[in-house]
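Module 6 notes. Inverse folding takes a fixed backbone as the condition and produces residue identities as the prediction. Think of it as a translation problem where the source language is geometry and the target language is the twenty amino acids. Below is one complete input and output pair. Work through it position by position during the lab.
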């Protein structure tokens, strides 16, 4: 969208807080981190919060930072963690005292528990185009409680000299959602902003200055991989752009983290990374393969329910498949249907500046259940410990029609239930639900995309 688009407008008032966004400040939401930017001066860093606008009886102080990127100097970036919050309670909060006060609200997540329902929004690769705006509008209509964002936020690196003003415009654009509910951040390649030709050699510099994550709460040494627990879901965020080989910090953390998962408390185990492990699109094909080869067995052994990714600007959902038999001697390297395995959802179709990934060059492979190159978003509606209703909404249909919908059953509480077979869209596979059948013996599917 052009710089004068109304969704990029700065809020009225001198030095008004802008680009307000929140994320979890601890692992479960009894703390919330509020971030905002002031452009003229740092101003007051206090956030007042409480149960009503006339009862903001708690206070917290923000840290303030700035950064430079080539010829750009940021505004004053504030990060403030509100603590001592109760589960499932609506709080009001305000900041900007001394100049222009702005007020917002959020509802904390419910206390984690096995049958606690939660609506998790799923958006990736959103950018700041007209399609991005449509995606956000549709997500507001479908109404999740929080968003798991699969990476690639601003695409500032696609503008001349990595124009960091585009980090500011994107922050203003999405404030209408992310100031009111926490978004959980996954780092994408467009967050790296590594540009030695501009003298910018510190990866993730704008992203880390602007978007804190609660990584310390899950004993992660880096902001790019961490976990949160929302209601009945334990969500593990991984970094496609940090080392993940055996013995690396991320690998060691993941191994320990999987040991900390308590499926009795949080039955739903979800992983997210930017680059997908299973995709049948020419764009970014196989980029996630090294991570899959390294980490897939850990995910299958842990009975991960769902793995979400972005990066590929299209939508794709897999059946429950695994490809963990391979070794260099036996040559077994074919994905097979596997009820122990996660479903893989690629949802990099938020509406970015690069356009759709429309090169589904092959006949749809057997591991792919549904694919389409359309912009959209999804919502995972967790009902209880056994069932979650998942739906993908393409922008072309608005927010009323789910273009792809599945009832997922939990891998811990219903491990043998085959929830990834035949939808109405794919009657051709109705008879092929064997969990041990080699994938290439399954009937070929008809390409769904245009
Ligand atoms: Fe990407």
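Target side of the pair, the amino acids:
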């Amino acid at each position: 969208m052009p710089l004068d688009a109304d969704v990029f407008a700065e809020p009225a008032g001198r030095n008004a807080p802008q680009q307000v966004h929140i994320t979890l400040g601890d692992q479960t939401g009894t703390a919330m981190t509020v971030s905002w930017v002031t452009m003229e001066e740092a101003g007051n860093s206090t956030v007042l919060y409480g149960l009503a606008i006339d009862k903001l009886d708690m206070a917290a102080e923000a840290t303030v930072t700035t950064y430079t990127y080539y010829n750009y100097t940021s505004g004053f970036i504030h990060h403030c963690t509100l603590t001592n919050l109760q589960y499932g309670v609506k709080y009001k909060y305000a900041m900007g005292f001394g100049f222009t006060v702005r007020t917002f609200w959020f509802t904390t997540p419910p206390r984690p528990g096995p049958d606690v329902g939660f609506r998790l929004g799923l958006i990736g690769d959103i950018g700041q185009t007209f399609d991005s705006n449509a995606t956000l509008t549709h997500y507001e209509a479908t109404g999740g409680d929080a968003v798991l964002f699969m990476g690639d936020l601003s695409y500032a690196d696609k503008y001349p000299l990595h124009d960091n003003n585009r980090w500011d415009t994107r922050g203003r654009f999405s404030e209408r959602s992310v100031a009111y509910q926490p978004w959980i951040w996954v780092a994408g390649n467009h967050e790296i902003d590594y540009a030695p030709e501009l003298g910018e050699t510190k990866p993730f510099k704008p992203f880390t200055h602007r978007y804190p994550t609660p990584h310390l709460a899950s004993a992660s040494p880096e902001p790019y991989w961490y976990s949160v627990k929302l209601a009945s879901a334990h969500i593990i965020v991984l970094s496609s752009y940090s080392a993940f080989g055996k013995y690396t910090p991320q690998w060691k953390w993941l191994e320990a983290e999987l040991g900390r998962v308590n499926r009795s408390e949080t039955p739903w185990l979800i992983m997210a990374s930017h680059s997908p492990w299973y995709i049948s699109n020419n764009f970014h094909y196989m980029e996630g393969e090294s991570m899959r080869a390294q980490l897939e067995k850990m995910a299958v052994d842990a009975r991960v329910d769902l793995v979400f990714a972005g990066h590929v600007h299209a939508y794709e959902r897999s059946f429950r498949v695994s490809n963990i038999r391979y070794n260099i001697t036996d040559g077994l390297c074919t994905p097979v249907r596997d009820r122990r395995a996660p479903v893989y959802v690629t949802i990099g179709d938020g509406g970015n500046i690069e356009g759709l990934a429309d090169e589904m060059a092959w006949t749809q492979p057997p591991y792919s259940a549904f694919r389409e190159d359309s912009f959209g978003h999804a919502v995972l509606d967790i009902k209880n410990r056994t069932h979650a209703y998942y739906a993908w909404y393409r922008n072309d249909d608005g927010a009323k029609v789910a273009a792809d919908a599945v009832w997922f059953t939990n891998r811990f509480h219903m491990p043998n239930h085959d929830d990834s077979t035949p939808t109405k869209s794919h009657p051709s596979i109705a008879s092929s639900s064997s969990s041990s059948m080699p994938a290439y013996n399954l009937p070929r599917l008809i390409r769904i995309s245009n």
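Reference fact for the lab report: The radius of gyration is 21 Å.
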